[in-house]
Structure prediction request, 190 residues.
Amino acid sequence: MYLYIHGFNSAPASTKACQLQARLAALGRSAGFSCPALSHWPETAMRQLEAEVARAPASGITLVGSSLGGFYATFLAERHGCRAVLVNPAVGAHIGLESYLGPQQNLYTAERYELTREHLAWWDKFSVEQPTTIERYFLMVTTGDEVLDYRAAVDRFRGAKQLVVAGSDHGFAEFGDYLDQVLAFGDAQL
Prediction:
């Protein structure tokens, strides 16, 4: 099963989520995909994700997290010992999103809310300083990411399978070109 975890102010309708879902459907594996619409509240989002992981089949789960979703995926991979594909991941959401404090609007749902220090405190609780089993991670980053410094992720996940794409941006428009690599990694056993 693949659990796609969308990023900050995103939703299941994100391009990368739809690309992964379509690829799995083309392979006759539609039932093996999930992408919940996550709450902006970190504690609620994590409860939603924990429920998805609990519903995963005995054959296992691969997390695919983008941006803030990569941050969540790291926490879950450490907690449950599953594989995680991290796409331009936030490595310190409690620090990196501080500059976004204040009014927010979800890009897909138009939901409005206030990003507060309480959000940052929850993200701090989910922070993973150093991954324990580096082989469970596949890091995918773009050097042209205008939101996050890709080098922080490359350093944090040193020793993991890594794909560094020159140029591009935070949205990683080329993600669809690498779906076979994502599935090969996710389908392999640890």
About this structure: The chain has a mean pLDDT of 95. Strands lie at 2-5, 33-34, 62-66, 83-87, 102-105, 112-115, 137-142, 161-165.
